[in-house]
Fold this sequence. Notes:
By secondary structure, the chain is α/β, with parallel strands linked by helices. The chain has a single domain, classed as 4-Layer Sandwich (Metallo-beta-lactamase, Chain A). The chain has helices at residues 47-54, 73-76, 79-84, 196-206, 226-236, 252-261; strands at residues 2-8, 25-32, 35-41, 65-67, 90-93, 102-106, 112-118, 131-134, 138-140, 145-148, 160-161, 176-180, 185-189, 212-218, 241-247. Strands 1-2-3-4-5-8 form a six-stranded mixed sheet. The protein has a six-stranded mixed sheet with strand order 9-10-12-13-14-15, with no helix packed on it. Helix 5 links the parallel strand 14 and strand 15. The two termini are 15 Å apart.
Amino acid sequence: MITFDLLVNDQMDAAQGRQSEHGLSIYAEVTRPGGAERIMLDTGQHVRTLRGNIGGSVDLGRLTAVVVSHGHYDHSGGLGLIAEAGARCPVFVGPDIDRRRYSAQMGADGTLGKMRKQIGMPEPELLRAMDVRRVEGVVEASESLTLFTLPTDAPPNPRLMAADMASPDNFSDELFAIVSDGDEEWLFGGCTHHGLPMLLEFVFTTLGKSRLAGFIGGLHLQGRTKAEIEAVADIAAKYDIVQWRPLHCTGDEAQEVWRKRFRSA
Length: 265
């Protein structure tokens, strides 16, 4: 059995006493006859938010793995809480997750301004004190966890830049996960900066999957036009994915398209 507990997201259920924050963190527990794996998928933006939202629901000291999907602050900012808890599990990251990266700020006239904001890991030095495993290609991290990077660059985004503050970030560090209990498989993408079509083509063709129980994570469709969102949904509909749980950077309009067209988890 696989269960997911949403710890950090742009929109959280206030009735559960959890604070909303721009970012993402998911706790996944996989129960098998031989035991359980307890996996943290991303860590949100701030230690204080992750700590408050967890409360007593997750024992961080018993984690068996942490996966950080890419080196943006809103996915890696809570790593300090993992270190503080004394977790001794491996922390899986992409090959160059700790490099600096920037975003361009949008001007009042709708054009990209010259202001640059550093949006990389807020505390990359934390990795030096952790059991970091840098993943490139496809890696069977455990019985329940397959990790992989994509072999091609992410499509250029003029707002997201590499360390030189001039060229587009190619997201070579973007790490995806398949969580499996032996019967069901769920695909996790923190932001899916490479784009959902490229990701699904790789999973179903290169990895040879024929069916997924679900997708959980961000689709990075915020700010896209309705026509662009529908075009991505058309491609997604060609694949056998039973349930969808789009989160974080998916955007309100894309969320609505997914609610209308797909079964929600």
